[in-house]
Structure formats: structure tokens, C-alpha cells
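ok so for the tutorial part 2 we go from a plain amino acid sequence to predicted C-alpha cells. step 1 is just haveing the sequence, like this:
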Amino acid sequence: MGKNLTVQKRGKGSTSYRSPSFNFKGNAQYPPMSEETFSGKIIDIMDCPGHAGPLLKVMCRNQEAIVQAPEGVRVNDDIFIGPGAPPLKGNILPLRNIPEGASVFNIESYPGDGGKMVKSSGTAAKVIAKFPDRITVLLPSKKERDFNPQCRATLGQVAGAGRPEKPFLRAGYRYFAMKSRNKYYPVVSGTSKNSVSHPFGGRSTNAKGHATTVSRDAPPGRKVGKIAARRTGYVR
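step 2 — the prediction. this is what the C-alpha cells look like for a chain of 236 residues:
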């Protein structure tokens, strides 16, 4: 008998592949939506293994909130949250109140979800057009997307720029960095594995030994390669 593939073992939910969320500082999201504008004081800047950039612990309305940290803020600074907040770096306000050309991050996909997009360290999006029913934003991927004018965003750029520029130097450092966020590492080709570990494994050659196209209804241990491909090969 063979054994489960890595994708099957990860999906099982064992402790070996479970995300170490007990080490995370918390979920970074905006405070609940409100029509009034209020301020918050930065009481701490935290490093969280579950986030690419640093986080801010903000005291607002006698409650602590965790938000994504913008570049250039420090402890004891004040940030303003709400429709009437001035369009300055670090403030959180709806897209309809942010001027065109401004850099923003941590954008809500829909009003009130707490911020879902553009959260990686050093990234920022740009407001390029404003309409009564939508706001067009240029994402870091160079794609344009329309958002609800009520969606909130933070002005500025996510702190921690330059993080990917530092090399890992050793595979061990990379292993623990990936493990801290439950990322699959190392990525190994199926043809390089043993025959009990992958349908394409075995032998000392790159010959697959099986068809690389599989049915949509194939069982989990065989569902590898080109899944339900409409066509294969070169376009002639």
C-alpha cells in the first residue's frame, strides 16, 4: 500500500501542519463602523509572526484595537478614524473622502469587514478615479478594482518595506519562517519523490508513468497534474 500524499496530510488537520495561531498577536482589523470621527493613541508597535508587516495596538474609545501599521508612525502618536478624519498618513477614513492620487492600504472589500486587501509589508494602492457609486483603485499588482465608496482604508504605506530583500542564507531559516505561518515548504517536484509519495514519483527519470490529465472526480490521492484540462500541448 502507498501512503497519503502531502496535500492529503495537510488537509487532515493534524498538529504537524496546523497553523500556530496561538503565537499570533491577534486579528488586525478596523474598529466597528461609525458616522462619528474619533481618535486613537498608539500604545505599542508589535511584531506578529502571522503578519508580514508590524501591527499597531491602538487605544480608542477605552478599548484596544489592532490595526496594520503605516510607515512613519511611532508610539504615543494619534490617529483619527471616521469620515471627518483629515487625509493624513495613518488616518482611517472611507474611500469617498480620500483624494485622488493618495496611497492607501488595508482596504475593505465591503463596508465593515475590517480590511482585507493590500496588507503585505511595504505595499500600497492608489486611488485613481472617484465616481458617485464606486471608487477605482490601482492595486500593487497593477490591476484596477472598483470599491464601494463606504469602504474604509488607511492612508500611507504598510510599514516593513524591504523585508523580501533580505536573503534567508540558510534553508533552516526559511523553514522556520514558513512554519510560523503554515506555508508549504519545501516545494518538491512530484517526479523527484518516491513512488509511494506521489503518482508521478519513482524511477530515476522524469517520465511520469501516468497521464498528467485527471478527471474532476478523481480521488484525492490521484488528483494531481492537469485537473480537468480542456486541452494540452502547444497551440499551433
